[in-house]
Specification:
This protein is α+β, with helices and mostly antiparallel strands. The protein is built from 24 helices and eleven strands.
Length: 579
């Protein structure tokens, strides 16, 4: 995709502007480089150059959810993180320094207006041209441009760990909003809930004529506040989803929001629909609402037409599939039926071949729909992809596998094939027609369910693969439920070799995170803790603890929501027999 290929170029330019011209004084303010580059390179600049790419919407799926996922763990860290040991430096190049920092700066820009924000940034850069700077220097520039006490508003967002969840209670003419720190395990202790953030609420309301408006002046500063709102009409907090927080509504309000979001005259923009789905699904993980509420919301919004909303839906369903990866065949069949009902109609609508002058959004939606329908084992989609891959495997004919669904076609061919298909993917990896084909071939090779071929993948990865490609093999092997535990066993057996190969790089911590991703049992947690117990973890302590926290959260979610998810899927399937 053009968007994906162009983003790194613009991002690199932004790093030059915000890293070389004005450099962070020390590693603790790394975000002044990386977070700024994320915001400017992947949102502000792209949106100015190519507004049709919807960079503001893409930013949500690419960065906000990613940031909040990590920041919802006890092992998170503030954006401005103390760094008194050189061994810790590699560990802070994470989604908090990039994605959360970029998202917090986006929230500030939205609050003060982008025009004034950029004016403040200009003041900051000019005052510290070819010198070093700290957070207060940036705040001074934006304060000068806006007349707002920016340090007062932003201090806790930068210097405190975590983010808030806003719980909404309603009367006929008002809403009461309470802020608390959010943890994905849902068990915040009093001592962990002392921070009070200054929160731009961006309250959307609808008047008698049906016209929507957003009040951007409201900043919540205390634990709990009440606001006048006619709750008989649509309303929503965090309009535009620029705020770095979650919003918890009562189940009946979620149902109303879902219905209102699908109406032709809906006041809710694409960003609002993404934020609603994401909030409900994520809060279900912590037990603050039911996961089935999120599934019902997705079911209600199946008439959605925008790619980025569907991308959010697929990501959240993928999270459930990841944690419930050892579900029974019956439950998996029900989940696949639900997924097919969502994505297979999109494949029928858009087909496999791009049409002249179609939008970027349509091309991305076609790619996503084919991938998701294949993952849900839609027999028609599987047959189509396997037939196209067969031409490649037997005759070297690439013409029927278009770039838009190349990765899915490769992986489907190998997952539902045997050694011949695996060898075909390996051949592409060794002699790829394009750089992307090489990466897609890795994911195809690692999609095999054959035990012998999984073993060959592991050996091949350690002996024949360049260091920069090892991560792709790890990702593929972890994503495959047939090889997930086998990968971690291999990681443990070869840890010394892997450590030496990746010591001193970002890769070591990332390999640990990938190896432990989606585990959700006490046995997996105990195994990981026991393995690292006697290791010197100083160079990867942060990603390790974040991974262990992830397993704990998955365990709790699975235990508390298993029957809820199974019952909802069973009920849905009983009512939709055609799938």
């Amino acid at each position: 995709m053009v968007f994906a290929n162009s983003t790194p170029l613009v991002d690199s330019y932004a790093i030059y502007r915000f890293g070389n011209i004005t450099s962070p004084e020390w590693w603790d303010v790394l975000y002044l480089n990386e977070g700024f580059a994320t915001l400017m390179g992947e949102l502000v600049i792209l949106d100015k150059l190519f507004p049709e790419w919807n960079a503001k919407v893409a930013f949500l799926n690419a960065h906000l959810d990613r940031a909040l996922a990590l920041d919802a763990r006890r092992s998170s860290h503030p954006i401005e993180v103390p760094c008194d040991d050189a061994k810790k430096i590699n560990m802070i190049f994470d989604s908090l320094s990039y994605s959360k920092a970029g998202s917090v700066l986006r929230m500030l820009s939205d609050f003060v207006t982008e025009e004034k924000f950029l004016k403040g940034v200009s003041i900051y850069l000019k005052k510290h041209l070819y010198s070093n700077a700290r957070t207060i220097n940036l705040w001074e520039g934006i304060s000068e441009a806006t007349g707002i006490n920016v340090p007062d508003v932003m201090d806790n967002w930068i210097n405190k760990i975590g983010f808030p969840v806003l719980t909404i209670t309603e009367t006929a003419d008002s809403i009461t909003v309470r802020q608390d720190r959010y943890l994905e395990t849902g068990d915040v202790k009093d001592e962990e809930n002392q921070t009070l953030w200054q929160i731009p609420l961006n309250l959307m309301t609808v008047d008698e004529s049906g016209k929507a408006s957003v009040d951007r002046s409201i900043v919540m500063k205390t634990r709990e506040e009440t606001y006048e709102v006619d709750t008989s009409k649509p309303f929503k907090l965090n309009a535009g989803t620029s705020g770095v927080y979650r919003v918890l509504y009562k189940p009946d309000r979620v149902k109303k929001l879902g219905k209102q979001a699908t109406e032709a005259s809906s006041p809710f923009a694409v960003t609002d629909r993404i934020g609603l789905i994401s909030d409900v699904m994520v809060l279900g993980k912590s037990g603050m609402c039911r996961t089935s509420d999120g599934l019902a919301l997705i079911n209600e919004m199946r008439s959605e037409t925008e790619y980025f909303v569907w991308d959010c839906i697929s990501t959240n369903l993928g999270t459930i599939l990841g944690v419930w990866w050892e579900m029974s065949d019956v439950v998996r069949a029900n989940m696949n039926a639900f997924r097919q009902s969502l994505f297979s109609p999109l494949v029928k609508k858009y087909g496999y071949e791009p049409q002249p002058d179609e939008s970027q959004d349509v091309r991305q939606l076609r790619t996503l729909a084919i991938s998701q329908a294949a993952g849900a084992e839609d027999p028609e989609v599987l047959d189509e992809l396997k037939s196209r891959f067969k031409l490649l495997a037997e005759n070297g004919d690439h013409s029927r596998i278009l770039p838009d669904f190349q990765s899915t076609a490769y992986s489907t061919g190998v997952r539902h094939g045997g050694r011949a298909e695996w060898e075909a993917a390996k051949k592409i990896f060794l002699n790829p027609p394009t750089a992307s084909a090489r990466t897609h071939a890795i994911y195809a090779m690692t999609a095999t369910r054959d035990e012998a071929l999984i073993e060959e993948n592991l050996k091949f990865m350690m002996t024949e693969v360049k260091t920069q490609d090892v991560m792709y093999f790890f990702i593929g092997l972890n994503s495959n439920r047939s090889s997930r535990r086998q990968l971690f066993a291999f990681f443990k057996e070869n840890f010394d070799t892997i450590y030496k190969r990746f010591e001193g790089t970002f890769g070591l911590g990332n390999l640990i995170k990938v190896s432990l991703r989606d585990f959700s049992t006490q046995g997996d947690l105990d195994d990981a803790i026991a393995f690292f117990k006697d290791k010197d973890t100083v160079k990867y302590s942060m990603p390790l603890e974040q991974s262990l926290d992830g397993i704990r959260a998955n365990m709790k979610w699975l235990n508390q929501s298993n029957s809820d998810v199974i019952d909802w899927l069973e009920s849905w399937t009983a009512s939709n027999r055609k799938y």
